[in-house]
Amino acid sequence: MNTAGFELLGHKDCLIAPVLIGDAHLAKAFAESMSNEGIHVVGFSYPMVPLNKARIRVAISAAHSPEHIECAIRAFIKVGRSFNLIPKIQPAFN
Questions:
Q1: Which tens digit of pLDDT belongs to each residue from 57-83?
Q2: What is the pLDDT of residues 12-40, one digit of tens each?
Q3: Would you put residue 56 in left (φ > 0), alpha (ψ -120 to 50) or beta?
Q4: Strand 16-22's sheet: what is its strand order?
Q5: N or C: which end of the chain has fewer CB within 10 A?
């Protein structure tokens, strides 16, 4: 996710992986677009998180296979590109 251009918050060993989006409206629209891709994530914004630190909350569990994780990353990249949050061309997961 970092290689793709996303900023991840929190600890790498935690099952919750917050992805910083910034704008509250954008985080909500991003979560809706991810749902359209078949990936359920939740957008959080102020007052649940600091102002202008809206994020997408991703829960990862042992039930997710490497293929599930790759599918989610591909969806994040697709949606991230559509919202111009990350560069259009990436070296990985194209």
A1: 999 888 999 999 999 999 999 999 999
A2: 778 888 999 999 999 999 999 999 999 99
A3: beta
A4: 7-8, 16-22, 54-59, 42-44
A5: C
Give me the residue label for tokens 């829960």.
Answer: 59
Residue 6: how many other CB atoms lie within 10 Å: 18
15 neighbors 60 (Cβ within 8 angstroms): yes
Ranges of each domain in the chain: 7-82
pLDDT number for residue 92? 56
CB–CB of 84/47 below 8 Å?
Answer: no
CB 56 within 8 A of CB 86: no
Looking at domain 7-82, what is its CATH homologous superfamily?
Answer: Aspartate Aminotransferase, domain 1 (3.90.1150.10)
What token pair was written down for 35? 């749902």
CB neighbours (10 Å) of residue 12?
6
* Alpha carbons 10 and 72: distance in angstroms, whole number: 18
